[in-house]
Specification:
single chain; mainly alpha; two-stranded antiparallel sheet; 3 helices; 68% helix
Amino acid sequence: MTDPIKPDHYRQGDMDLFEAWHATLPFDHYKTVMVCIAERYMKRDKDNPLQDLDKAIYTLQRLREKLEERDEQDA
């Protein structure tokens, strides 16, 4: 069974969609995209609101990781 929070169809090779965006977008654009995706999951009215919340949390955790990496590089 695939992981509903991070399904395989978002991955191509070693890079998933979030990593591809991070690699190709300016950081402020990447941050905006990630926040919008999380907000979309939080506002969805589908069959599984807990799963949608988990997806939003996962998206924000990924953003947090990149923010932490950025802070470490600036230090």
